[in-house]
C-alpha cells in the first residue's frame, strides 16, 4: 500500500463507518482469519462492522474467535443484502475479482460503498478505491497485520485477533513451509504468539479433528490416484458417489491434493471432485517450482490463484473432464520437463 493509500484509509477510518467485510466463496482459513481479525480491529475503532460470507465453510474453522458474528449470505440472505446495501465501506479479503463471491457478485456490483481490497492472488481486477495487492505475501492474514501496522496500530491486536491471523497464515503457508513463507512471515507469527495466539491449540483445532469417515475417504482418494511420471503429474478423482459413501462434509477433502506432490519427481498435482448439486467438477491444482498452476487453471479450467496453488472448475462429466485434462497435459510435456 503506498502512502497516498494509507492517507486515504486513515481519513476514511477517522469517521465512524458502516463496514462490510467479505471473504471469497468457500472461504478457507486465510479468508476467515483475515476477515475476523479485521472485524475485531475495526470494531475496536468504533465502526459498525459485519463479516458476510458468501456461503458456508468447514467445521474446522468454526471455533475461531468472533465466528458467531458471521452472516451467511446463502442462509441469511435478506440480512446479508441489507448489510451490503447500507455499507459505506466494503473490504474484500483474500480474492481480487468479484466473480469469486458467486451469487453475491451482483449485490456487490450494485453497492454504493467504497471498496478496499486486501489480497495476495495474481492479476487483481480493478474494482476497489484502494487496492492493497501483493502476490509475494504468504497470506491475506499477513497483509492484514501489515495493514494495521501501516495505520500504526499493531498495539490494538489482542489475543482473539492474533489467533485469527495466526490461523490464516498457518493454513495458507501449509504450516509455514510454502515458498511464500518469508523471514518476515515468521516475525509476524512470533509477534502474534506474543500477543496471545496459542500456536499448539490452533494447530490442534484445525488439523486434529478428523472423523473416521474422512480418513476412509482419504484412503479412497489415495487409491484413486493416477501417477503419470512422464508428465511429472499425479491426479486424484473423487466422484459424488464416493463422497456420499463416506458421509462427505465440507472441508473433508482439504489437503488431499498435496499428497501427489510428496511423490519423488512429481511437480504437478490435482484433485477433481464431483459436485452433483452444482453440476461441476471442482479442481484444485498444486505445483512445485516454476510451473504455474495459476496460468494452467486460467487457460483451461475457468479458474486461477497463485503460481503453486490454484483452483478451477469443469462443467462436463468426470470422464469428459479427465479425458480433456489428459489431452491438455500432452501439450505441457516440455513445460513439465524443463
Ligand atoms: P483451493 O484449491 O484450495 O480451492 O484453492 C487454491 C487457491 O486457488 C486459493 O488461493 C484460491 O483462492 C484459488 N482458487 C480456488 N478456486 C478458484 C477459482 O475458481 N478461481 C480463481 N481465480 N481462484 C481460485
Ligand atoms: Mn489466501
UniProtKB/TrEMBL annotation:
Gene3D superfamilies: 3.10.310.30, inorganic pyrophosphatase (n-terminal core) (3.90.1640.10). This is Bifunctional oligoribonuclease/PAP phosphatase NrnA. Residues 246-330 form the DHHA1 domain. InterPro entries: DDH_dom (IPR001667), DHH_sf (IPR038763), DHHA1_dom (IPR003156), Oligoribo/pAp-PDE_c-di-AMP_PDE (IPR051319). Residues 18-169 form the DDH domain.
